[in-house]
Amino acid sequence: MGYTGIIGMSLLAIVPLAAVFGCQRTDTPAEAKDTKDNPMGNADPTQQQTVETEYPANHLADQTSLYLLMHAHNPVDWYPWGEEALAKAKAEGKLIFLSVGYSSCYWCHVMERESFMDEEIAALLNEHFVCIKVDREERPDIDQIYMTALQIYFQLTRSPQGGGWPMTMFLTPEAQPVMGGTYFPPRDRRGLPGLVGVLDMVRQRWQENPKQMRESGKVLAAMVKRQLQQQPEPTAEQLSATLADATFRGLVARFDPEHGGFGYSAVNSRLPKFPEPSNLLFLLDRAARDRATRDGARDHKTSAESMLIATLERMAAGGIVDHVGGGFHRYSTDRFWAIPHFEKMLYDNGQLATVYAEAYRLTGQSAFRHVTEALLDFVLREMTGPEGGFYAAIDAETDAEEGRYYVWDHAELAEHLTAGELALLKDVYDVEENGNFEGHVVLLLRQPLEETSSSRKLTGDQLREQLAPIHEKLLALREKRKRPLTDTKVLTAWNGLMIRGFADAGRILENPRYTAAAVKAATFVLENLRTEDGRLLRTFAGGRAQLNAYLDDYAFLADGLIALYRATDDRRWLDEADRLTAMQIERFWDDRYGGFFFTSSDHEQLIARSKDPVDSALPSGNAVTVGNLVYLAAVLEKPEYLDRAEKTLAAFAAQFEQTPSGMPRMALSLAAFLDARGR
After folding, report:
1. Inter-CA distances, 259 with 367, 397, 596, 603, Å
2. Contact 544, 480 (CB under 8 A)
3. Rounded CA gap, 170 and 324, in Å?
4. 398-436, pLDDT tens digit by residue?
């Protein structure tokens, strides 16, 4: 029977639940398709519990993930993903309740407090389900598979949702997805279905007709596999500069001409806007090429350079940047970059360090240098461990209040600043008595700093010098507050991005302190996140490294080491990048179609083994790898690497043609490949 017939039968099991699962909260966007005291940020994760409780430890107590440890004393009998939990579900014939999130996810915290500390809910879960908790940052493979399943499920049930976190999925005992949602309140609330009712309904469905639910799981799993593993035949003949041109046209079509950035609604300014560093890196390269060819079109408002500068300037002026402490928050909740979602992620800051440093090199604008330096100084101060590894994230909330650590009250500013300092602050920033965010003040520039400085007959740097002691005073005041949670796990891939950010900035800004930070982090990762035979591991926390590394871990770390070689001319980093790339080819290469799988050949067998060329908040591992191969082929005189790059590009050429604006990092790598081939 074909898919259509099977789906038609299976919807008998799914559709009655669609009314329940299809109306969930969508306050946080689905980034996949784009939602305790710790004074120094250096504490052991096991000491950073958000809830003190009398409940005994469950099966998460020996984990190193901060997100899992936050649930280790729930009354829910949580298991980590693994053979013990999966075997238990099969042996007992129970559905799996899969909950996926991450430590800095606001609504994950809400659901943990509201539902997973609720004894009635815990009793339902413990009696009728095997409960598995997953940190999506440690296990992006599991997250991708079941998020894809959730999105397909929403499509089948005609739900307007697109996914997000916390992700809540029900699986058969064979771990095949049946149905799911995102955030559920504990009980029905303002039209939102409560988790108590949902659990009871799913339990009844399973007891009444497990065969039908298993059939639904098989169908949904097959659709996930088909979507994640679809692969057209490679077509190297399509590889030309026209593909990169199509990427540029796609970005022009998505560009916000008034406020910079990409993807916006002219009628709904409350749609969130993400930095999308892969877009910016592509524009940087194209702008440099335009300058090299003396293309006067760069002065047009939709030239690569003008789009790049407009976006970087507007981001740097908005509340998405931390004007007091440096660094970027994860995204803006509006079109204007004004009010952020306050969590800070290492992967954003690593990529944006490279973007702003390179933009300074391209344009000479001192504002871009200042943003880069403030960002890197923040990472050194708050997201760097004593041995040099970079921490994953800082939470958005403090004591269940989002942004409390970062916002200001007008009275507080008036109390701690002199009249002259407050007047200057108000002249530069949007500081009003009633605030601009729920009665509080988020610091954002009233206008570009250079315009304010010009009206004061100062240069931008002179005005920054006047603001510096005010920022220092506010930072000292802020550091007395209770800090948001810092997730101190060290992820190999994300460290690769930050190593590149520090190395690029050290080279461009001629700052040896930044280069030294990159060296220290690279040394830490290479010494602590590898097995004896040299294979990479994914995560380091609680004093130990674990979990198979993914494509991104190899690709991003090699990219960071290449940047470190360019910054230091130390052959060690080039040789390490070469070794990692060779191992990546051995363990991730697709012999049939070309390109690289996300998981290694010896990885746990899951529903699907994906191979994704599309950029999201993180760049595509395949795209970054092409850039690595092109560089190493030239410097090491290894033409076989250039052949691998060509086969990888060819493997995704058809998808490139269909969605060029979704693959800017691949377009960037394609341009480098064409240069190397002399085309």
Report:
1. 18, 27, 37, 44
2. no
3. 43
4. 999 999 999 999 999 999 999 999 999 999 999 999 999
